[in-house]
Specification:
CATH topology of the domain at 89-280 in chain A: MetI-like fold
Helix content of chain A: over 70%
Structural class of chain B: alpha/beta
Strand content of chain A: under 5%
Largest sheet of chain B: 7 strands, mixed
Structural class of chain A: mainly alpha
Number of strands of chain A: 0
Shape of chain A: globular
Order of helices and strands of chain A: HHHHHHHHHHHH
Shape of chain B: globular
Number of helices of chain A: 12
Bound molecules: adenosine-5'-triphosphate, magnesium ion
Strand content of chain B: 15-25%
Number of strands of chain B: 11
CATH class of the domain at 89-280 in chain A: Mainly Alpha
Radius of gyration of chain B: 20 Å
Largest interface: A-B, 19 and 24 residues
Helix content of chain B: 25-40%
Oligomer: heterodimer
Largest sheet of chain A: none
CATH superfamily of the domain at 89-280 in chain A: MetI-like
């Protein structure tokens, strides 16, 4: 039953994709139009500005086949480096991943111990709560000017923004997970005279691990959302900068490819953490 | 007799302050004691404070006044001398059966080698009949098996006193019976001092030497202590053929149904909190068999 459901779901997914690609292909195949001349009513200035795509009557939107071809070409040589404005997609992705993982790692190192502290102490939990509640809803982009002004270095600013945005879900989840460890388990440790440090590692951490991982999963999603926006602002390298750059080049094909890659990478990051979460989750 | 008291509860009270500032007294001026090797059961209606008493004995909770004393020392906190079998078994789900037991053993014997800890743990896993399941996680076990792990974990630290909070209440009758047999055998063999909470009158009669009857809360008191008249070598399956069985059973059921509510409002003349009356119901002085009544 379960396998047949999976099979049917996969089939429906495939059909939806096929239908989407077909509609896309149909919509971008061009209107035939007035061969050679300008489409009726088009301002010649605008036509000049927009380049060939607009004037030929063919849609500026690339077809799925164009995108597929370009993607193949990119993937065949993802790591070339021909100067600041022309790097392979693999290199750009690596820059983004590097920033995300660095900012995220710092956030984990801060959020998990601090969350432990907050979760174990009712006092700290109450004292820090107003700060967390105010800081949590701030948009990553709002931090950017402040980061650029104080840190100066744009690369570090991007990492800082990743850090500051991904720290909250982990902090809150860790604190919640630690605070809601079953009292019975703590009592087991207490009756065995297990010391506080050993108790933290042998009871609280494993008990809170699934909740902590949930926070980490939310955080990696946020970090990956933020990096694209941050790199658009900061410029230089990374998949976000790539999108911006290709938009300035008016290469919609490359923009679409970048979108696809951003989506797939985000999914992979999420799935990695989901797999880790499964490793530390034990049903009772 | 008073000199040989191994565990004694001396005038303890426990109060909770509600949100509105009103305090409720769960119990007050509660006294009773146990000898070494005693198997005591405490019976009383839900909410009368049985778990609170057990937690105080375990050192997980502290009385507001009075003291609990074991082996000449006031109980000031949890200790490896007293093992607890929790109501909800409280196994650590991320550890295997063996892992749960070794966690206890290695806490008790911090200098032991891993191999020694493991061998010791395996001995107790075998004792409760779980050999072969030592690498399973709690989620893969049945309710009875989980409870066995809890028992193995508690016994493996070889405590001076075993505290059990309704250890068998979540089990089916068959499993409960087998586990009762095993626990009784182990405790008799090792001369274990046991304090156990139960709601099951028959269980109390089968296992306990002495049964502490607690009245309804709040302000519960120990109504009396029932000295079990059945011979020590009783067997579960034909225990109802013992001459005094129905005398004890009726006495207990009568208490749960009637006297647990009314006892406090009309304390018998000469009732002393410090020395609750000890009664020993035998066929001579009790009502005839009335087998169908059940504890509320
Ligand atoms: N943390 C608490 N705050 C306030 N009241 C409490 C608290 N813990 C227990 N009580 C009260 O103390 C009383 C005794 O509780 P306890 O758990 O000892 O009962 P019990 O006899 O073990 O009941 P049961 O048979 O249902 O397990 C109850 O009336 C309960 O409402
Ligand atoms: Mg209870």
């Amino acid at each position: 039953m379960a396998t047949s459901l999976n099979l049917r779901a996969a089939l429906v997914s495939f059909l939806l994709l096929a239908a989407f690609l077909l509609v896309w292909q149909g919509a971008t195949a061009g209107f035939g139009g007035t061969s050679g001349g300008l489409p009726a009513g088009m301002d010649p200035e605008y036509a000049k500005l927009m380049g060939l795509t607009a004037t030929t009557g063919k849609s500026a939107m690339p077809s799925p086949l164009d995108v597929g071809g370009a993607l193949m070409k990119m993937l065949s040589d993802p790591f070339y480096d021909k100067g600041p404005n022309d790097k392979g997609i693999g290199i750009q992705l690596a820059y983004s991943l590097g920033r995300v993982l660095l900012g995220y790692a710092i956030a984990v190192l801060v959020a998990v111990p601090l969350g432990f502290l907050i979760g174990m102490s009712a006092l700290m939990s109450r004292a820090l709560d107003p700060f967390i509640q105010v800081l949590k809803p701030i948009s990553p982009l709002a931090w950017m000017p402040l980061a650029l002004y104080t840190i100066k270095d744009s690369g570090i600013s991007a990492i800082f923004v990743i850090f500051i945005c991904s720290v909250w879900p982990m902090l809150l989840n860790t604190a919640f997970g630690v605070a809601s460890v079953r009292k019975e388990w703590l009592n087991v440790a207490r009756t065995l005279e297990v010391g506080p440090l050993k108790r933290a590692f042998t009871v609280i951490l494993p008990a809170a691990a699934p909740t902590i991982l949930t926070g980490m999963r939310i955080s990696i999603g946020i970090a990956w959302l933020v990096i694209v926006a941050a790199e658009m602002l900061v410029g230089g390298t990374g998949i976000g900068y790539f999108v911006w750059n290709e938009w300035n080049n008016l290469s919609i094909t490359n923009v679409i490819i970048a979108i696809l890659i951003i989506g797939v990478t985000g999914m992979v990051l999420d799935q990695i953490l989901a797999a880790v979460a499964r490793l530390v989750t034990f049903p009772e | 007799m008073t000199d040989s008291r191994y565990v004694s509860i001396e005038g303890i009270a426990r109060r909770y302050t509600a949100a509105g500032g009103r305090t409720t007294t769960v119990f007050e001026d509660l006294w009773f004691s146990m000898n070494k090797g005693d198997f005591a059961c405490i019976i009383g209606h839900s909410g009368c404070g049985k778990t609170t008493v057990l937690n105080i004995l375990a050192g997980l909770d502290a009385p507001d006044t009075g003291a609990a004393i074991m082996d000449g020392q006031a109980i000031a906190g949890p200790s490896l001398e007293r093992a607890v079998i929790f109501q909800g078994h409280a196994l650590l789900p991320w550890r295997t059966v063996l892992g749960n037991v070794t966690y206890a053993v290695s806490s008790r014997h911090r200098r032991w080698s891993a191999q020694k800890v493991r061998d010791h743990a395996m001995r107790f896993i075998e004792l409760v009949g779980l050999k072969g399941a030592e690498n399973k996680r709690p989620s893969e076990l049945s309710g009875g098996m989980k409870q066995r792990v809890g028992i193995a974990r508690a016994l493996s630290i070889e405590p001076k006193m075993l505290l059990m909070d309704e250890p068998f209440s979540a089990l089916d009758a068959l499993t409960r019976g087998t586990l009762q047999d095993e626990v009784r055998r182990i405790c008799l063999e090792t001369g274990q001092t046991v304090f156990m909470i139960t709601h099951d009158v028959d269980e109390a009669i089968y296992l306990a030497d002495r049964i502490v009857l607690m009245t309804n809360g709040p302000q519960a008191v120990v109504a009396e202590i029932v000295d079990n008249p059945l011979p020590r070598d009783r067997r579960r399956l034909d225990i109802h053929k013992q001459p005094d069985f129905y005398a004890v059973r009726n006495h207990l059921i009568d208490f749960l149904v009637e006297r647990s509510k009314t006892f406090k409002s009309a304390l018998p003349p000469g009732y002393d909190h410090r020395h609750p009356p000890v009664v020993r119901p035998t066929t001579g002085l009790s009502t005839p068999p009335d087998g169908d009544m059940r504890a509320a």
